[in-house]
């Protein structure tokens, strides 16, 4: 059985797979209601995603999917040759 932190993490990772860079993730409040968990559990997951450079926090606005980072390939194996 998965712990609630793993469930919240799976939820946000699935959301990241469905949205484009620059789009906002579901709000903490909506995830709290949907998954019946507390804000601190959600924040643990969001802080982890920020540390992984998957999302960007914007104060008062929410968390947004990060786009490709300048100087890094967009996806594995996509280095430009030439």
Domain count: 1
* Sheet with the most strands, sense and barrel status: 2 strands, antiparallel
Second CATH tier, the architecture = Orthogonal Bundle
Q: Percentage of helical residues? A: 40-55%
How many distinct helices? Answer: 3
CATH topology: Arc Repressor Mutant, subunit A
Adjacency order of strands in the biggest sheet: 1-2
From the helix content, strand content and strand pairing, which structural class follows?
mainly alpha
Shape: globular
Overall mean pLDDT: 86
What series of H and E elements makes up the topology?
HHHEE
Termini Cα gap: 49 Å
Count of individual beta strands:
2
Per CATH, the class reads Mainly Alpha
Q: CATH H-level name... which superfamily?
A: Winged helix-like DNA-binding domain superfamily/Winged helix DNA-binding domain
Radius of gyration, in Å, reads 14 Å
Task: Give start-end ranges of low-pLDDT stretches.
Answer: 75-82
How would you describe this structure to a colleague?
The protein has helices at residues 4-18, 28-35, 39-51, and strands at residues 55-58, 62-65. With 82 residues, the protein is mainly α. The protein has a single domain (4-65), classed as Orthogonal Bundle (Arc Repressor Mutant, subunit A), CATH 1.10.10.10. Strands 1-2 form a two-stranded antiparallel ribbon. Strand 1 (55-58) and strand 2 (62-65) form a beta hairpin. The radius of gyration is 14 Å and the shape is globular. The termini are far apart. Mean pLDDT is 86; it is low at 75-82.
């Amino acid at each position: 059985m998965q712990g609630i932190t793993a469930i919240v993490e799976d939820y946000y990772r699935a959301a990241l797979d469905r949205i484009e860079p620059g789009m906002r993730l579901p709000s903490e409040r909506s995830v709290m209601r949907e998954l019946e968990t507390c804000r601190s559990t959600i924040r643990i997951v969001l802080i982890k995603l920020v540390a992984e450079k998957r999302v960007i926090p914007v104060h008062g606005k929410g968390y947004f999917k990060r786009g490709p980072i300048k100087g890094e390939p967009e996806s594995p194996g996509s280095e430009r040759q030439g």
